[in-house]
Automatic annotation (TrEMBL):
Organism of provenance: Cloeon dipterum
Annotated InterPro entries: LRR_dom_sf, LRRNT, SLRP
Classification via PANTHER family: AGAP008170-PA, INSULIN-LIKE GROWTH FACTOR-BINDING PROTEIN COMPLEX ACID LABILE SUBUNIT
Keyword vocabulary terms for this entry: Leucine-rich repeat, Membrane, Repeat, Signal, Transmembrane, Transmembrane helix
SMART domains cross-referenced by the UniProt entry: LRRNT (SM00013)
Protein name, entry field: LRRNT domain-containing protein
Domain (LRRNT) ranges: 126-177
Transmembrane region(s): 317-334
Gene3D superfamilies the UniProt entry points to: Ribonuclease Inhibitor
Origin: domain of life: Eukaryota
Length: 367
């Protein structure tokens, strides 16, 4: 097994050292070499068998290329970054992290790129004012060309009880969870955000007990295309827009969940004819649909009876319109037929028809 000879430290004025492809497996030997060459600024230990990054201390702006060490452990890398150690090609450098998968109560190993670890250092710097931010979970995604699976560290942002009047302008990188409950937010407008606002990975929003009046501002947002959870209990929402049905069922997982109880739904005939069937159709997604009440009457929306909230005219007005149109059409056909019969038998048109402007088809009738 090849090891780095500490005697290499006798070489003076060495700034870059390449010991890649040497089957190195002892990070302590590498650290000894680095510490014994004061002039060294970069070392390439890529494509070896290192399981840990070398412990480098007291070296500001030192660069370390450690990619393609298959068994490299993530432990200690964040501490090295805090020591201003620069990792070459962090997007392409993977390390292994042991995590416990709660639902199966077993340990597993995931691969993290060093950029995701570096982003956790910036969490507190990127955290919105008045909010708290923390690492929440490991998110595994497919890599380039749907090949290798790469994991990232997801961030949770808690802005509850902060007297906010609008959504945070930006979030830490790779934020997936946002809690803005118990504030004074009036709109969930996610369409006018800046490109660098880091809302692109967000799939969980808790906006309970705010002053949100409409869901129209969510239409066409990137959040609705891949969300998993949206809780809007205790707001002032009065209608459920039709686009929400397509958005909920059209998510990649098909498991998007929404909570809408304790809002200000004004119930009328339109609610019974349209909103009630929508709630029933989306019962697997609107998880509290059985607890959504009318604001203007003591009844659940799903218990509304058409005959009790709709007048006869409201229920059947469309049928009256159809009947009226059919009668008008029959009247018109009858009038034209009568005028034609009179013209053929008497030789002139009745007075109303004779006063009407001539049409191109009149010559056909005259012949």
């Amino acid at each position: 097994m090849i090891k780095v000879d500490p005697k290499v430290g006798n070489i003076s004025n060495v700034r870059c050292l390449n010991v890649s492809y040497n089957s190195l497996d002892n990070s302590t030997d590498v650290a000894n070499v680095i510490n014994s060459i004061p002039s060294l600024q970069l070392i390439d230990v890529s494509n070896n068998n290192l399981s840990h990054a070398p412990n480098i201390s007291g070296r500001s702006d030192f660069s370390l290329h450690i990619a393609n060490n298959e068994f490299l452990n993530c432990d200690g890398i964040k501490e090295q970054m805090l020591e201003n150690i620069k990792f070459v090609h962090p997007d392409q450098t993977l390390c292994r992290k042991f995590v416990t998968i709660t639902q199966w109560s077993k340990e597993d190993t995931v691969s993290l790129n060093l950029s995701s670890i570096a982003s956790t250092i910036m969490i507190h710097k990127q955290c919105p004012p008045k909010c708290s931010c923390s690492e929440s979970r490991i998110v595994t995604e497919k890599g380039e060309n749907n090949q290798n699976q790469v994991s990232n560290i997801a961030v949770a942002v808690n802005c509850s009880y902060r007297h906010l009047t609008k959504m945070p302008e930006s979030l830490p990188t790779y934020t997936t969870t946002l809690d803005v409950s118990h504030n004074n937010i009036t709109s969930l407008n996610l369409n006018g955000l800046k490109p660098d606002s880091n809302y692109d990975k967000l799939n969980y929003i808790n906006a309970n007990y705010n002053e949100i009046k409409t869901l129209q501002t969510l239409e066409g947002s990137e959040f609705l295309k891949a969300f998993e959870y949206l809780s809007l209990k205790g707001n002032q929402i009065s209608k459920i827009p039709h686009f929400l049905e397509k958005a909920v069922t059209g998510t990649p997982s098909g498991k998007g969940q929404i909570l809408l109880s304790d809002n200000k739904f004004e119930c009328n005939c339109d609610t019974a004819l349209h909103m009630k069937p929508m709630l029933v159709a989306l019962e697997k997604h609107i998880v509290d649909f059985e607890n959504i009440y009318c604001n203007n009457m003591e009844i659940k929306i799903i218990d509304l009876v058409n005959e009790k909230v709709c007048t006869i005219n409201e229920i059947n007005y469309i049928y009256y319109i159809i009947v009226a149109e059919v009668l008008l059409l029959l009247l018109l056909v009858g009038k034209v037929s009568y005028d034609y019969w009179v013209f053929k038998h008497v030789g002139y048109l009745p007075w109303p028809a004779s006063k009407m402007p001539r049409l191109p088809c009149d010559c056909v009738l005259e012949n």
